Amino acid sequence: MRLNYILSDLGIGLKRNLSMTIAVVVTIWVSLSLFGSALLAREQVDLMKGNWYDKIQISVFLCTKDSGGRGCSGTEVTQEQKNRIQQVIETNPDTAPDGVFTESKAQAFESFKKLYKDSPIVSTVTQDQMQESFRVKLKDPQKYQNLVSAVAGLPGVDTVQDLRQYLDPLFKALNGLQVGALIAAGLLLVAALMQISNTIRLAAYARRREIGIMRLVGASNFYIQLPFLLEAVLAALVGAVFACATLWVGVYFVVMQRAQETFRVWQWVGATETFRATLIMVVAGLILAVIPTFLTTRKYLKV
């Protein structure tokens, strides 16, 4: 009997506040979608940093006959020059122990073919066009300028590249987007919280006489609050389901179908990260429903 009453009261509440309930669902849908996107953006930045910062190296590319670097003279690097370059690198105090690796033309060509295995450009490049290089790991990746200065311009050196100079601006931009998304998501979550509070407040005010009677006949606070709680939880769950579906669709079409195929060198968020984000979104949606409902209905429980 009590369950029938609670379900009946829930149905009446939804009918009376249908437009407000729809507004709550849409607000939660949008806010949780953006919140989930911000969570995935944080995961993506962390994946990129973990994938690249631990592998940051100084790449010292050696001259070929077609190179135009200032250390090149239109000819291939000689063995004597390679020995001199390697000596400078190995004796540099910032070079990590056993941190110097030589990549031959053959190895560079194999790496090139793996990276662009589905691209027609592979058929237009030959092994002779590849550059030999030294890959240098540092004791501290932050301290790369001394080694770059020592090696750049040596005879036989075409270019010296440090991935950090390319990655740092990218990660700063990504971090900025991440912070912006989190701020926007936070504001929308606050808006959803206020929307739910207003909806429950209006529903409780419309049934204040019924609540007063139930309180006088001895109904418990939780029993009185339960229909309002179920109403808010139902709206939050519907909005959370829409938000989770939106996030999965976005990850599938934007990340899995496009980004992973276009930018193969990056490690991208996948099902594991998305599932973790959706769990957090559902929990956040339930918190948005439960807390304002209990706080809003408390004032109507006093006789």
Automatic annotation (TrEMBL):
Pfam families: FtsX, FtsX_ECD. Keywords: Cell cycle, Cell division, Cell membrane, Membrane, Transmembrane, Transmembrane helix. It is found in: Cell membrane. Residues 56-160 form the FtsX extracellular domain. Residues 183-302 form the ABC3 transporter permease C-terminal domain. It comes from the Bacteria. The chain crosses the membrane at residues 21-41, 179-205, 226-255, 275-295. Its main location: membrane. It is a multi-pass membrane protein. Forms a membrane-associated complex with FtsE. Part of the ABC transporter FtsEX involved in cellular division. Belongs to the ABC-4 integral membrane protein family. FtsX subfamily. This is Cell division protein FtsX.
